Amino acid sequence: MSIVEFRKVTKAFGPVVVLQEVDLSISVGEVVVLIGPSGSGKSTLLRCINALEEITSGDLIVDGISVRAGGSKVRLIRQEAGMVFQQFNLFPQMTALENVAFGLRHVRGIGGKEANKQANALLAKVGLAERGGHYPSELSGGQQQRVAIARALAIKPKLMLFDEPTSALDPELRHEVLQVMRSLAEEGMTMVVVTHEMAFARQVGTRLIFMEGGKITVDGDPKSLLASPDNPRLQEFLQHVE
Ligand code: ADP
Ligand code: MG
């Protein structure tokens, strides 16, 4: 069963075409790792999935809802897909607990006490049970990113979108974030992950997609593609990230 389906999706910013007639179908439970040179359209592809960007032509169906449907339907799509960004994007004036409880209260309409209880459980899930009262500025980058993951999970998404979630972190802090992502994958969460972490792609990814110039040029099994990338541009790309 496909949860995301791109049908000849084109996205342009003015005269600049960023996605070119992309066809892509993602099934429930897949862990898709998306790689490609800077500017190839990876972030834009993710942002189209949760309707942060409007597509220019074609159609994109997320859990049975077209992003073209507009209005309240688009809000539904945003609730299907949780997003985690490179720069964490936590609310700086709220504690970790408040950051996570925010979505529970405002998106899912859950009241204060119950929201806090669920938020605490989500913080425990990402290994931060003791950190609920801390402000983002009092947490390490890896901890902040784990709060951001808990916050995204609070809306009970059917799929999770990660845009270079470890790129802003020092190497020694990446592992704790990747570990949380790995657990999510093991629980069966459908995920689309833009990352340069090829070990994660190999060990956790069920599918590897390489984008160039707004097109998907390679799509296959991560282990075999990483072991023997036949595509010369993928080969060259991998030499620079590994
Ligand atoms: P990637 O994530 O692969 O680096 P992006 O999806 O961020 O690529 O960007 C793809 C292309 O789209 C780039 O050339 C970028 O400059 C352009 N682009 C992205 N967002 C916008 C925007 N809001 N307005 C104009 N151009 C944009
Ligand atoms: Mg990007």
TrEMBL record:
Domain ABC transporter: residue ranges: 4-238
Which ranges form a coiled coil?
none
Q: Which residues form the signal peptide?
A: none
A Pfam family: ABC_tran
From the UniProt record, which GO molecular function terms apply?
Answer: ABC-type amino acid transporter activity; ATP binding; ATP hydrolysis activity
Entry keyword Plastid: no
- Which PANTHER family has this protein been placed in? AMINO ACID IMPORT ATP-BINDING PROTEIN, GLUTAMINE TRANSPORT ATP-BINDING PROTEIN GLNQ
**Statement: the UniProt record of this protein carries the keyword Manganese:** no
Q: Which InterPro entries match?
A: AAA+_ATPase, ABC_ATPase_HisP-typ, ABC_transporter-like_ATP-bd, ABC_transporter-like_CS, MetN_ABC_transporter-like, P-loop_NTPase
State the EC number(s).
3.6.3.-
Question: The organism sits in which domain of life?
Answer: Bacteria
Q: Which family does it belong to?
A: Belongs to the ABC transporter superfamily.
Give the matching NCBIfam families: PRK09493.1 (NF007027)
Q: Which UniProt keywords apply?
A: ATP-binding, Hydrolase, Nucleotide-binding, Transport
Query: Which class of enzymes does this protein belong to?
Result: hydrolase
The protein's name: Glutamine transport system ATP-binding protein
Gene3D superfamilies in the cross-refs: P-loop containing nucleotide triphosphate hydrolases (3.40.50.300)
